[in-house]
Design a protein that fits this description.
432 residues, Methylamine Dehydrogenase, Chain H, mainly beta
Length: 432
């Protein structure tokens, strides 16, 4: 029973909202109805907000969903499998063990969630929990698996980083009792980070583990022992340990990625920063207009990809850019925040709070010459259809006219220098 005149609507417009909030809501709803955005990046629809994902081989991805589960996506069929690993809260992170660590031919995956649990399960049978990693006292925020050893790293809102050793033989997880094997941490790292741990990554040789989070500092640990990496400098700021202290980043660091000689971080302070690992100084700073949630360096071609609040993906040319890297492409596909970026061969994947996982061919995007905003083949086909058969009426005609005007503003003849830079990037892509 409701009181006379009571507002029982679920429409957000019926609640108090500012003009700016109403305008943003209307723009988001318009984007969700845009048939072009529904096709961009060949989206896989997960049925829940994708908070994190990991590519598992050439045809599979593991997704961490805000809907309290981890799902397996079939990349070829462009759909999620029905069975899922269940959690008692939003699933924030996933990881996949090495190709050699399998049970009955199936790769093993891990998922961490707000329920403080880390579950180990077979990609072919996500409903059965093989092992529980028990030790965190607050939300699990991030997971990383060692590329060749049965070692897992986790970060949590309890301000700790934990290192876990799984059995040398994965068959030891496949016990006959049906109950999951309980595993405790091999190493607990605590007391140096003063805030929640949001992100972890290993360097390309898997020798060093980097961690960061809400305290906006970056720390380094020996990937096998968990001991702090010693500093090579005599700075008063590091107490003898390798650290990039809070300062350049003013607030939360949400993502960190490592290349051979640099680190890249993404932050709520609206920047992505490339760091020199040896000097621990910022080499490149990519300024954005909103929070940067994720970053993906592609050093082979001198490109860095960033994902932001609001759904825009940016490609930056950092090859010989000096102090002024430039945006070479924008992708307007996700209709909500971009949450994660991962490379797989010559393509990269993006996920978002719009519940989609999308795939992008880096060569197609870098080589596109139609303007700053990436306009794929689907758009050209739709435009040709509108010219040949559309009378200018209806929903699609409004979309097409908007696109045409956007293209008119963006498209321009490349300068000789821009053509040369583009040609260099394209030649580098052949090595991927």
């Amino acid at each position: 029973m409701s009181f006379p005149g009571a507002n029982i609507s679920s429409d957000r417009r019926h609640f108090f909202m500012s003009s700016a909030q109403l305008e943003a809501l209307e723009q988001k709803e318009a984007m969700e109805k845009d048939p072009l955005r529904q096709k961009l990046g060949s989206p896989i629809r997960a049925g829940g907000r994708i908070l994190n994902f990991e590519i598992c081989g050439s045809d599979t991805a593991v997704l961490a969903l805000g809907s309290h589960q981890a799902k397996v996506a079939d990349l070829a069929a462009r759909e999620c499998r029905r069975n899922a690993a269940k959690h008692g809260g939003p699933t924030t992170s996933v990881a996949v063990m090495s190709e050699s660590y399998t049970i009955s031919g199936s790769r093993l995956a891990l998922s961490g969630a707000w329920d403080k649990q880390i579950k180990v399960w077979a990609v072919d049978d996500p409903q059965r929990t093989l092992a529980l990693l028990v030790g965190h006292s607050d939300f699990v925020k991030c997971l990383v698996a060692h590329p060749s050893l049965p070692i897992v790293y986790s970060g949590s809102a309890d301000k700790t980083v934990m290192i876990w050793k799984l059995p040398e033989s994965p068959d030891d997880l496949n016990n006959n009792s049906g109950d999951p094997v309980e595993i405790t941490p091999f190493k607990i790292i605590k007391g140096l980070h003063t805030g929640q741990i949001y992100t972890l990554c290993l360097d390309p040789l898997a020798e060093t583990l980097y961690s960061s989070g809400s305290d906006a500092s970056i720390r380094a640990w020996d990937a096998l022992t968990g001991n702090p990496v010693a500093s090579q400098s005599t700075s008063d700021d590091d107490d003898g340990y390798w650290i990039i202290p809070r300062g350049q980043h003013k607030t939360n660091i949400f993502d960190i990625k490592a290349t051979d000689n640099s680190l890249w971080t993404a932050s709520a302070d609206k920047t992505a920063i490339g760091w020199d690992v040896e000097t621990r100084r910022a080499d490149l700073i990519l300024e954005h207009k909103t929070t940067v949630n994720c970053v993906l360096p592609i050093p082979q071609v001198g490109v860095v990809v960033t994902g932001t609040n609001g759904g825009v993906i940016y490609l930056w040319n950092t090859s010989g850019a000096g102090d002024t890297p430039e945006i070479i492409r924008e992708i307007h596909a996700h209709t909500d925040d971009v949450t994660c970026l991962k490379m797989a061969g010559r393509v990269f994947y993006s996920s978002g709070l719009d519940e989609t996982l999308r795939v992008w061919d880096i060569k197609d995007i870098v080589g596109f010459k139609g303007g700053i905003e990436y306009v794929p083949k689907e758009l050209a086909d739709l435009e040709r259809q509108s010219r040949s058969g559309n009378t200018g009426h209806g929903e699609n005609s409004n979309i097409i006219s908007g696109i045409k005007s956007g293209q008119a503003k963006q498209s321009s003849v490349l300068t000789e220098e821009e053509e040369r830079e583009l040609a260099e990037l394209m030649s580098d892509l052949d090595d991927l």
